[in-house]
């Protein structure tokens, strides 16, 4: 097995371990109600050929509140990434979604960045995991500005 293939497998395993830990931490605690739990959003990010991989994926409610965010981990030599992060509910943070409301995914390419909305909005389901694989096209991708 090549070292780049091994690195890719390690990145995928690390992402899956993160997802398992997030789901497990949500299941702990008998007094929590489903509405109080976070949902977990995860998936692969594949930029267009010659494009850039975003640094982070952010979940934004219909009211414009940031309700979760996670880093995009590059998958070895492949020019693709993986993300997984919890998205909190309205019971945890004002402005975040309640069960059944929509969440938008936003790509971040730098530290100070315009939000790049991607894909259709996703339904927030507390206590559940939602896969959202992001295969970007020229219309959904942008080239980050060079920093001085």
Shape: globular
- What is the helix tally? 1
Uncertain spans, ≥5 residues at pLDDT below 50?
Answer: 1-5, 7-35, 140-148
Largest sheet: 5 strands, mixed
What is the arithmetic mean of pLDDT? 76
Number of strands: 9
Portion in beta strands: 25-35%
Order of helices and strands: HEEEEEEEEE
Q: Fraction of residues in helices?
A: 10-25%
Whole-number radius of gyration? 16 Å
Question: How far is it from the N-terminal to the C-terminal residue, by CA?
Answer: 40 Å
Structural class: alpha+beta
Notes on the structure:
The protein is an alpha+beta fold and 148 residues long. Helices cover 17% and strands 33% of the residues. Strands 1, 4, 5, 8 and 9 form a 5-stranded mixed beta sheet that branches. It has a 4-stranded antiparallel beta sheet with strand order 3-2-6-7, with no helix packed on it. The longest helix has 25 residues, at 3-27.
Q: How would the blueprint of this fold be written?
A:
Layout: H1 3-27, E1 39-46, E2 56-61, E3 66-71, E4 73-74, E5 81-87, E6 102-108, E7 116-123, E8 129-131, E9 134-135
Tags for this entry?
148 residues, alpha+beta, five-stranded mixed beta sheet, 1 helix, 9 strands, 17% helix
Please provide a brief summary of the model:
The protein is α+β, with helices and mostly antiparallel strands. It has 1 helix and 9 strands; from the N terminus they run αβββββββββ.
């Amino acid at each position: 097995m090549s070292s780049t293939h091994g690195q890719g497998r390690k990145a995928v395993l690390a992402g899956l371990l993160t997802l398992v830990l997030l789901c497990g931490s949500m299941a702990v605690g008998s007094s929590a109600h489903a509405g109080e739990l976070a949902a977990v959003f995860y998936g692969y990010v594949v930029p267009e050929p010659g494009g850039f991989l975003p640094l982070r994926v952010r979940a934004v409610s219909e009211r414009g509140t940031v309700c979760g965010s996670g880093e995009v981990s590059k998958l070895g030599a492949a020019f693709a990434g993986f993300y997984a992060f919890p998205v909190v509910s309205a019971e945890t943070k004002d402005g975040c979604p309640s069960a059944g409301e929509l969440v938008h995914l936003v790509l971040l390419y730098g530290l100070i960045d315009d939000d790049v909305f991607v894909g259709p909005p996703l339904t927030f389901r507390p206590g559940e995991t939602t896969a959202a694989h992001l295969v970007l096209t020229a219309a959904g991708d942008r080239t980050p500005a060079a920093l001085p």
